[in-house]
Design a protein that fits this description.
Layout lengths: L7 H12 L4 H23 L8 E5 L5 E3 H14 L5 E6 L6 E2 L9 E9 L10 E9 L20 E7 L3 E6 L5 E6 L4 E6 L10 E3 L10 H11 L11 E2 L5 H11 L2 E4 L3 H5 L6 E2 H14 L3 E3 L16 E2 L1 E4 L1 H14 L2
Parallel strand pairs: 3-5, 11-12, 11-13
Antiparallel strand pairs: 1-2, 3-4, 5-6, 6-7, 7-8, 8-9, 9-10, 13-17, 14-16, 15-17
Helix pairs in contact: 2-3, 4-8
This protein binds 2,5-anhydro-1,6-di-O-phosphono-D-mannitol and magnesium ion.
2,5-anhydro-1,6-di-O-phosphono-D-mannitol binds next to strand 5.
Length: 339
């Protein structure tokens, strides 16, 4: 008998059996997340035909201009996730405070923090974008507070992203490695296509927005200068550089073939009183756990991302993640050159 591909639901059932940790509520929640991703994938693919491009005409809590699709993505996810009784609350890049599941729906034991549409500047130019999510447990009774979301990355029970690009792909971890699924639009199913993703320890590729080079701090300046020096320099090899303008696009490439992604602290951010650009709860933590589960590393330069105890919902952190050899090298430069 010929065998068809493994669907996301079949994979989750099999994983639970294999590891003896079946969690039907989490499986149900992930099935809702997948549904939301499919809905958003359809809108992203239709683009202007669905009237979803352009600015929303308002700013989010972080003072960033919202695109129409940022707002729509937030609504699509909340609508897809709030009615099944798996979640107690939702925190989002696009919402000031968290969204408690309304009392007319049943409340569950999980919290979800997410960036509805990461890489917003790519929307109008048909570049890659994605949704990033992080799931933790809600231990208290009743409606959660913002404080309930302030759990370190080590408390995540599942993290992942959906990349909207030439194909839509869902990558996730529940602590047993990283698995990748490709959306088969003919069946409307995410099919397991990339089991047990591993990030190579060594790489010749880095990703950083070099328009900020003049603001970089000494560790990143040294690192990039040495990469640019190529075979003649201290690294004695040539490097390549890629910057997608979308963390999901960059992290996905690194999970597929190695590399290092940097959005470090710099003098421009320091002058603005910001602790970084990317947000801990729904960008750095979920991507950091995926990276570590794939054998890579995720660090700020001074501490592992997953060990940070968050102090606010939209907290920002410096991010360095990817192939372990390069992240270790950057940590070394931070130890030598910080200050
Ligand atoms: P967003 O969540 O508002 O889209 O911002 C996050 C994005 C990341 O996807 C990307 O790595 C970074 O911001 C790009 O920033 P910059 O335009 O400063 O290079
Ligand atoms: Mg983002």
């Amino acid at each position: 008998m010929s065998q068809t591909g493994t669907t996301l639901s079949q994979f989750l059932i099999e994983q639970g059996r294999l590891h003896g940790d079946t969690d039907e509520a989490l499986n149900g929640l992930l099935s809702d997340v997948a549904t939301a991703c499919k809905r958003l994938s359809n809108l992203v693919r239709l683009g202007e035909l669905a009237g979803v491009l352009g600015a929303a005409g308002q700013e989010n809590v972080q003072g960033e201009e919202q695109k129409k699709l940022d707002v729509i993505a937030n609504e699509v996810f909340i609508d897809s996730l709030q009615r099944s009784g798996y979640l107690a609350g939702i925190a989002s890049e696009e919402m000031d405070a968290h969204y408690p599941i309304p009392a007319n729906y049943s409340r569950g034991d999980y919290l979800l923090a997410f960036d509805p549409l990461d890489g917003s500047s790519n929307i109008d130019v048909n570049g890659s974008t994605g949704t990033i999510f992080s799931i933790t447990r809600h231990s208290g009774d009743g409606a959660p507070t913002d404080a309930d979301f302030l759990q370190s990355g080590l408390s995540q029970v599942c993290s992942g992203y959906c990349l909207y690009s030439s194909a839509s792909m869902l990558l996730l971890t529940t602590g047993h490695g990283v698995s990748g699924f490709t959306l088969d639009n003919r069946e409307g199913e995410f099919i397991l296509t990339h089991p047990e993703i591993k990030v190579p320890r060594a790489t010749r590729e880095y990703a950083i927005n070099s328009a900020y080079a003049r603001h970089w701090l000494a560790p990143e300046k040294r690192y990039v200068e040495e990469c640019l020096a190529g075979v003649e320099g201290p690294r004695e090899k040539d490097f390549n550089m890629r910057w997608a303008g979308s963390m999901v696009g960059d992290v996905h490439r690194i999970l597929c073939r190695g590399g290092v992604f940097m959005y470090p602290m710099d003098a421009r951010l320091q002058a603005d009183g910001k602790a970084g650009k990317l947000r801990l709860l729904y960008e750095a933590n979920p991507m950091g756990w995926l990276m570590e589960q794939a054998g890579g590393m995720a660090h700020t330069g001074t501490q592992p991302i997953l060990s940070i105890q968050p102090d606010s919902l939209h907290q920002r952190v410096p991010v360095i993640m990817g192939s372990a050899e390069e992240v270790e090298r950057l940590i070394g430069y931070h130890q030598e050159l910080a200050g």
